[in-house]
Amino acid sequence: MMNIETAKIEALRTLLAEPRNIVIVSHTNPDGDAIGSSLAMAEVMRAHGHKVTTVVPNRFPYYLEWIPRSKDIVIYRFDKEHRTEKALGEADIIICADMSALSRLEDLSAAIAANTHAKRVLVDHHLNPEEGFDVMFSSPESSSTAFLVYTLLVALYGKESITDVVATQLYVGMMTDTGNFAFSNLTPELFRAAADLSATGIDIPTIYNNVYNSYTEGRARLFGYTISRKMKTLLKGTVAYMSLTEEEMRRFWFQQGDSEGFVNYPLTVKKMRMSAMFSEQQGFIRVSLRSRGEVDVNEFARRYFNGGGHRNAAGGKSFVSMDETIQHYIASVEEYHAEGLV
Ligand code: 5GP
Ligand code: MN
Q1: Angle, to 10 degrees, between the axis of helix 164-177 and the axis of helix 145-157?
Q2: Which of 65, 162, 297, 310 is surrounded by the most beta carbons within 10 Å?
């Protein structure tokens, strides 16, 4: 079992002892873990008599749209019917999934902050979670939030609560956050949990294909272009960075999610220790960072890009031009290197 304090599980059990209005929110640019974890909690909680609304700040990638019940998710940016405000007005409980700070909700954070009556629950695996939650499940040692959610749901409601729908939702979270069970924190407990999911009869090759072999042609060509033309290296080929402007993305018929995962590819080079991807958004540049082993990009993101995440996968933002962002990255890498950190 993952080490979760019994007192916290009991506190959550008490909160859920009678039918509640629950809002589950997750981070901006939602990924497979954010969507899978939110939907799995919603599914099981609805089955136990609760009214649940799931909300994310902006759209999730098209290759996650096949996930069962994903159409139920309210996209706050396009929420013309004000379903979010309505649900928040009635909410007894707000669950923040796969995020460690309200600021990760961006446009949605003010609406959440405005609700002062609901109990707040954190279910997350990022480092350095912020204060202010009534019940806090923070497991940075967990490879995904979905694995933590699995553990919580089984503790609360037993393995019977994990239907094939829930198993599919959780498997997507585990698979995507571990790079198909290849990254760090792969514990025997995780594989036991995956075995339990598999035992519900879910179709694992189909889940894999739905996520990883469902891209557009534009995405494949953009990927080739990014690696071939835009990947630059520093420190004798041990640190990489890439960038994409809005114009470049448009050239390849960019759709939300198309550049996810590109940042991992420089690390397929044996001697590479750290990789960065800068992608232009409206009003800022999104920074994605990945590293190998002891190189700590959570610390790097916090120090130089006002962000955070995990030791080997982190992100942040830059509010200066692409050229200035890249210059700042190069200078930051040099400083980090001088301190022996990369
Ligand atoms: P990605 O590169 O996939 O967007 O993000 C990698 C990791 O860094 C994720 O765990 C994500 O939550 C975290 N992350 C990405 N962007 C930010 C950010 O702006 N602020 C913080 N604190 N974490 C971020
Ligand atoms: Mn996650």
Answers
A1: 150
A2: 297
Q: Is 314 in the pocket of ligand 1 (CB under 6 A)?
A: yes
Q: Which two structure tokens, joined as six digits, stand for 274?
A: 């750290």
The pairing of strands 74-75 and 93-97 is unpaired
What's the 91 CA to ligand 2 centre distance in angstroms?
24
Ligand 1 centre distance from Cα of residue 242 (Å): 17
**Residue 330 maps to which CATH number?**
3.10.310.30
- List all residues 6 or more positions away from 107 whose beta carbon is below 8 Å from its beta carbon: 57, 58, 76, 77
Full pLDDT tens readout for the chain, 342 residues: 578 999 999 999 999 999 999 999 999 999 999 999 999 999 999 999 999 999 999 999 999 999 999 999 999 999 999 999 999 999 999 999 999 999 999 999 999 999 889 999 999 999 999 999 999 999 999 999 999 999 999 999 999 999 999 999 999 999 999 999 999 899 999 999 999 999 999 999 999 999 999 999 999 999 999 999 999 999 999 999 999 999 999 999 999 999 999 999 999 999 999 999 999 999 999 999 999 999 999 999 999 999 999 999 999 999 999 999 999 999 999 999 999 999
Say yes or no: 33 and 89 in one domain. Answer: yes
Q: Which of 26, 105, 278, 288 to mutate to test the pocket of ligand 1 (most atoms within 8 A of CB)?
A: 288
Give nearest CA residue, ligand 1 atom 12. Answer: 309
Give the total number of structural domains in the chain: 2
Which domain does 232 fall in, by range? 217-338
- Give the separation between CA 271 and CA 267, rounded to whole angstroms: 8
Which of 168, 184, 211 terminates a domain? The answer is 211
Count of beta carbons in the 10 Å neighbourhood of residue 294:
10
